[in-house]
Amino acid sequence: MNPQALARSRDFDHRGRAWYADRAVTVFVFIGGTSAILFIGGIFAFIAREGLGFVFTEFDAGEFFGSIAWRPTSALDATYGALALIVGTASITGLAMVVSIPFSLAAAVFIGEFARGRVRETLKVLVELLAAIPSVVWGFIGFSIMNSLIIDVFDVPIGLNVLNAGIILGLMAAPIMTTIAEDALKAVPDGYREAAEALGATRWQVIRKVVIPAAKNGLVAAVLLGVGRGFGETMVVLMASGHSINLPDSVFDSVRALTATIAAELGETAVGSDHFRALFTLGILLFLVTFAINLAADTIMRGIRRKGERGRP
Amino acid sequence: MRRSMSTLLSILVIACGGRAENGARAVIQNKGSDTLITVAQAWAEAYSAVDAEVAVAVSGGGSGTGISAMINGTVDIANSSRKMTSREIEAARANGNDPVEHLVGHDALAVYVHRDNPVGRLTLDQLAGIYGENGTIERWSQLDVQVPGCTSDEIVRVSRQNNSGTFAYFREAVLDNEDFKLGSHDMHGSKDVVHLVAQTPCSIGYSGMAYATPEVTMPCVMGTAGDPCVGPSIETALDGSYPISRPLLMYTSGSPAGQVKAYLDWVLGDAGQCIMLELGYTPAMPAACVQ
Fold it and tell me: Which SS3 state, helix, strand or coil, does residue B148 take?
C-alpha cells in the first residue's frame, strides 16, 4: 500500500461518523447486556433492605413457616404465619402444571411434527394470540364467569378456589410453554428423523424415541418457565383463588397466594411498619424460590447436556 | 383493578394539573377509603365548577392507603371510613404531620346475602358467631335457614382485605375487636364483595349500603335478640337506630387552610352534603336539598 493510500485509510478509520456510530452501538449493547445483572442486584438489594430488618427482629421461623395465622393488622396480637400462603401458591402452581404440561407438550408436538402449511401457521398465530391476553382479563373471567360455572357444575359452596385459579393459570402458561417446546422440537436436526425413518421407525416411534429425547433440554426449560410463571402470577390468583387463608384439602377449597397477599396489602401499609417489612419478607421468599427454580433448571440442563455430549460419538 | 384505574386517573389529573400550572391551578391530593370513593369523585367533579382554579385529584385503595399516605405526608386530604388509631396518629406526628379529623357523613354498613337467601334478620351475636375467631356458626342450618342453591349448607364468609376501613369497623363494632376467623374470602373492594355475594348462594358479606344491587338482599340487624330489627337506610343511619353505621371521615394535616379549607367547607355545606345524600350516603349535617 502506498503512503498516500495508507494516510487516506487512516483518515477514514479515525473518528468518522461510522466510527462514532460503531462505538455508540458497542457501548449500548454492552450496557444492555450487563444491565440485567445490575437490575437483579438492585432489586435484590432493595427487597433485602426492606425485608431483612424484619427477619432479624420480629421474625419467628416457627411461626412464619409453621402457622397459617396471617393476621398482620390484628387488634389483639399481630401474627405473621405464612404457611397457608406458601401452600396456596404451591397448590395453584401444581394444578396449573397438571393442566398445562400435557396440553402444551401435545400442542407443541402437533404444531412441530404433524401440522403442515396453513394449519401450522394459523395454529402458531393463535397460540401466540392466547399468550397476549392480559392477566387482568383472565382474572376477570375467573372471578365473574368461572365462579358461577364451578358452583353450578360441581355443586360446591364457592367457585373461587384452587381449581379455578389452577385452570386459568394453566391456560395462561400453556402458550409460552407451547412456543418454547415447539422451538426445542424444531431444533432437533432433520437428520435424526431421517435416520430413524430409514431404520423403519413409525412416525410415533420417531417422535417418542428420537425427537423428544433429543429435545429434552428445551422441554425441561419450557416446563420450568411455566412453573416460574405460575409462582409469579399475581392478578389471576388474587381474583380467582378466593383470597382465603386455608390449607386446601381438595381442589374445591379456596386458598391465598404469596403474590396476591403482597399485591393486596402492600399499597395500604405504612412504609417501614412491621406489616410492611413482613410483606417484603414474603418478597424475599418468592425471590429465593424463583432463584432456586432457575438454578435447578440450569443444573438439570447442564447435566443433560454433558451426558448428551459424552453419549455422542 | 379499581385502584390501578384510579391511580392512573390521578396521574392523569396530576399531569394535567402540572401542565396548567402556568394558569395557577392548584391540585388537592385526596386519597383513601374505597367506601367514600364514589362520593369523593363526585365532589371533585362538582367542585371544578365551583372553583376552576382548584383541581381535586381523587384516588382510592382503601382507608389504610389514605392513612398511610397521611402518615407519609403525600396527601392533602385522606379519606377514611374508620378513625385513625393512636399508633397511626403518633406515626404521623413523628413525620411532622398532625392529623385533624373532619366528619363528613355516615354510612350504614349493610350485611349482604344472595337474593334467594331467606334469612331476613340477624343479630350482632349471630354475625360475630359467623365471622369471629371463636364463633361456632359454620352452617346456614344453625341459623334455621335453608338456602336454595346451597346444598352444602356451608356459610361462605366474604370479607375485606385486612387494611380496609370497612374491615376494621366491622371488627370493632361486631367482633368487639376479636380476630376474624381465618378462611374468609378477602375481597379487594366494596363492589367486589357485593358482586361475589350476588353470584354465590352460600355466601354472606358486608359493605357500605350504597353498593347494594337488586341481586343481593340486606337483612335487618338487631343489636341484641329482642331489639327491634332495623334495616340499613339513610334515616336509620342518621338517627343511630341501625346498630352498625359508622362515621365517614376526612383527615387533613394540621388545621386546613387556604384552598383545602375552602374545599372542606364546601363539602360540609349544602352542596357537598346533598351530593352525598344523592349517592346513598347519610350526610353529617342536615342539608337543605332540592329534590
Answer: coil
* The model's pTM: 0.81
The 3 state secondary structure assigned to A123-185 is HHHHHHHHHCCCHHHHHHHHHHHHHHHHHHHHCCCCCCCHHHHHHHHHHHHHHHHHHHHHHHH
Closest approach of B163 to chain A, Cα-based (Å) = 6
AA identity, residue A34: T
Q: What are the backbone dihedrals phi and psi of residue B13, each rounded to the nearest 5 degrees, phi first? A: -60, -45
Helix %, strand %, coil % of chain B (to 5): 40, 25, 35
Asked if B182 and A254 come within 8 Å (Cβ–Cβ), the reply is no
DSSP letter (8 states) at residue A3: H
**B2-106+247-283 topology per CATH:** D-Maltodextrin-Binding Protein; domain 2 (3.40.190)
A187 and A257, same domain (yes or no): yes
Residues B254-272: tens digit of each pLDDT: 999 889 999 999 999 988 9
User: ipTM of the assembly?
Assistant: 0.80
Q: Which residues does A18 contact at the CB level (< 8 Å), separation at least 6? A: none
CA pair distance A22, A45, nearest whole angstrom: 34
Q: Does this chain's domain B2-106+247-283 share its CATH topology with B107-238?
A: yes
What residue segments make up the domains of chain B, in order of their start?
2-106+247-283, 107-238
Give the pLDDT confidence of B176-198 residue by residue, as tens digits: 999 999 999 999 888 999 999 99
- Mutation target to probe the B interface, by most B beta carbons within 10 A, among A144, A158, A255, A277 is A158
Please name the member of A156, A244, A268 whose beta carbon is closest to the beta carbon of B186.
A244
Q: Which residues constitute the domain of residue A26?
A: 3-57
Residue A246, SS3 per DSSP: coil
A68 part of a folded domain: no
Residues A40 and A130 in one domain: no
**Number of separate domains in chain A:** 2
Residues 6+ away with beta carbon under 8 Å from A159: A146, A147, A148, A149, A150, A151, B199, B200
Cross-chain Cβ contact A265/B200 below 8 Å? no
Contact criterion met (CB < 8 Å) for A71 and B162 = yes
CATH class of B107-238: alpha beta
